[in-house]
């Protein structure tokens, strides 16, 4: 059997003369483009990239101007404190720890503490009466708050101090009569200047505290109270363990503002000749005519205790924020410790660039 085979076609002279390889096919001819790429006329031009934008920083000219003015005013004040002899700092140092001034300071702090405790206790009762369903209690609490917020504190102090003009005696007896057959007191002896000051400050503070406490209680989500009712929690425990701790976050800032205002407001009791801090300072500078140094003594003492109350406010608010924030803000002491740790932690020494290059070349040689 014979098998027919087709002879291979010989390559053309042109193909044999010009062998092509993958590298030769991609090599462009001199002065031209590669044969497999289109001509420049057929290829679209690449899109031009936009020039990068230069971001100009926002210039707060007004902020810088106001900051410069503030720095100038502070610098001018500090310069005046050290250069003006009329401040009379030796007189200030002499009377700052004076025995009479310290007695007046103690009376100021005692009046503030007593009036704040009585005022906030009575204010809490008034707030509950304002939120009660009894129209009589609601009306009484509203009338109390309306009256003592309307009458100035100075007028209240003078009225309590001169209550003996209205009622020479006070006591217990038959109702709607002045026959005090059970017990009877002389009003002038009963309501001294100290008692009049505590009554005026406490009742005045109670009117404002009632609204502060009521606002804090209203800020608690009603769903919390409804859930506590559904669980059968008693009313007293529901108020002290659920409602009040949540309301404290809203009550505390305004409450501390009121206490700080009460600390400074005790200076009004000079109207009833009570020797608190400001009255004592007045008596001293009326004798020696050193007005400015003695006023500085009172101002510095007020500033010290206001600062103490502000620090206490910060830590108490931080305590009550534990149930509302995931991470409590650091205290000033914690911030100072963190700063000291950052300062004490020194960075590792860095090698020079030549040493780094030598180490890199030696590692490459070993590989």
CATH architecture field of the domain at 84-322: Orthogonal Bundle
Question: What fraction of the residues are assigned to beta strands by DSSP?
Answer: under 5%
What top-tier CATH class of the domain at 84-322 fits best?
Mainly Alpha
CATH topology of the domain at 84-322: MetI-like fold
What's the overall geometry? Answer: flat
Distance between the termini: 67 Å
SSE pattern, N- to C-terminal: HHHHHHHEEHHHHHHHH
How many alpha or pi helices?
15
Can you give the helix content as a percent range? 55-70%
Low-confidence stretches: 1-8, 10-29, 348-356
CATH superfamily of the domain at 84-322: MetI-like
The strand count comes to 2
Mean pLDDT: 81
Task: Determine the structural class based on helices, strands and strand pairing.
Answer: mainly alpha
Folded structure, characterized:
The chain has a domain at 84-322: MetI-like (MetI-like fold), CATH 1.10.3720. It is 65% helix and 2% strand. It contains 15 helices and two strands. The protein has helices at 13-17, 22-25, 61-83, 89-96, 99-131, 135-150, 153-161, 187-190, 193-218, 222-230, 235-265, 277-288, 291-320, 332-344, 353-366, and strands spanning 169-172, 183-186. A two-stranded antiparallel ribbon has the order 1-2. Helix 4 (89-96) packs across helix 13 (291-320), helix 10 runs antiparallel to helix 11 (235-265) and helix 12 (277-288) packs antiparallel against helix 13. Mean pLDDT is 81; it is low at 1-8, 10-29 and 348-356.
Which features would summarize this protein structure in a list?
flat, 2% strand, mainly alpha, single chain, two-stranded antiparallel sheet, 367 residues
